[in-house]
Specification:
Oligomer: single chain
Strand order of the largest sheet: 14-13-12-11-7-10-9-8-15
Helix content: 25-40%
Distance between the termini: 50 Å
Structural class: alpha/beta
Number of strands: 15
Length: about 350
């Protein structure tokens, strides 16, 4: 039975506490938060100890969930990992690659399980696209468009939309494309005020020919969490919010070049056009039942500790997303008044 503590008694900490309390192999023993009212409220809900500091928490636990603001992740995470505590840390891991790398190194040295909360990995819509994802993992070039938008929530204000929202999609894409990044173009701007971007766009090119476009906004009247992946033989539209995956696939006649412009006369083209897509492209929608992705994430954390295996979203995996997110933010910040910027291999030379 794992003795687990929650660090951070805000909304996310409360969610994680609920999942921990419901898990049969977890003994939720404590909540730590510097804000007395928040930690006492959550501790009373679950009948656990409330701690004002990490030093009070450490003797009670062998694992923790860090659901504190991003700006506190490094300091709290490094202390926990150096003590050998297993850590599930909410995304983003950190807002700097150097801090994130130190966390990964500390986990490795102490043999602690270090998992990062990129919860979309547990979304059934992502799993439904597995056949296409396997093609991408095998090296097939793919065109990717990811959009993530919401209204302004007044949460995660210590980072911008790249680390708050876009990083979900960066993590997913980097986890399936087996090729190094050769360039990053980025643009973005602040809307609400303060030091961080509220709207951002990035275009990433990979050595194998894959191109991925990312857009995120936390000042949108529309809510969207979607990704389109396109190869020469399949297009998949993944809607994370609705848990659906739509696939469009050409038939064998299209793939073998039967309808190439050089093989179709002007007269034939006129007859084919009205029904061509319907007759020669198969459309399939996969609707998935609702799941508790946060509970699945908690279970993956527990099973990783029990079995000694690597969790689905390890600190090492999440490190790549932090590196690219940091590059995007720096690119946005170094440009013209409209904040355009570009990174390429020449910048790393």
């Amino acid at each position: 039975m794992l003795k687990l503590g929650i660090i951070g008694a805000g909304r996310l900490g409360s969610f994680h506490a609920d999942k921990a309390a419901a898990h049969p192999d977890v003994d939720l023993v404590a909540v730590m938060d510097p804000w007395e009212h928040s930690r006492k409220t959550l501790a009373q809900k679950h009948h656990v100890v409330d701690c004002a500091t990490l030093d009070e928490l450490f003797p009670l636990v062998d694992s923790v969930v860090i659901a504190a603001p991003t700006s506190a992740h490094y300091e709290m995470g490094i202390r926990c990992l150096r003590r050998g505590l297993h850590v599930l840390m909410e995304k983003p891991m950190c807002s700097s690659w150097s801090d994130a790398e130190q966390l990964v190194d500390a986990a490795s040295k102490s043999n602690a399980v270090f998992q990062v909360g990129h919860v979309e990995e547990f979304n059934p819509a992502w799993a439904a696209a597995e056949p296409l994802l396997d093609q991408v993992r095998a090296g097939r070039p793919v065109l990717i468009d990811a959009v993530r938008c919401s209204g302004y929530t007044f949460r995660s204000t210590d980072v911008g939309t790249v680390f708050d929202m876009m990083i979900h999609d960066l993590d997913l894409v980097l986890s399936i494309v087996p090729s190094r990044v050769i360039s990053v173009d980025a643009a973005g701007f602040n809307v609400i005020g303060g030091p961080h971007e509220d709207v951002a766009n990035a275009r990433i090119r990979f050595e194998n020919g894959t191109v991925a476009n990312f857009f995120s906004s936390r000042v949108s009247t529309q809510v969207s969490r979607a990704m389109r992946l396109t190869t020469a033989n399949t297009t998949a539209m993944i809607d994370f919010g609705n848990r659906t995956a739509n696939f469009l696939r050409p038939d064998s006649k299209v793939l073998d070049g039967t309808f190439a412009p050089t093989n179709v006369s002007f007269e034939e083209a006129g007859k084919l056009a009205p029904t061509f897509m319907k007759e020669h492209f198969a459309s399939e929608e996969v609707q998935n039942d609702a799941v508790d992705a946060l509970a699945l994430e908690m279970n993956d954390f527990v099973r990783a500790i029990q079995s000694g295996r690597v969790p689905k979203v390890s600190g090492q995996r999440a490190l790549a997303a932090v590196a690219i997110a940091e590059t995007i933010v720096k690119s946005i910040g170094k440009g013209t008044p409209l904040h355009f910027g570009c990174y390429s291999e020449r910048d790393a030379a």
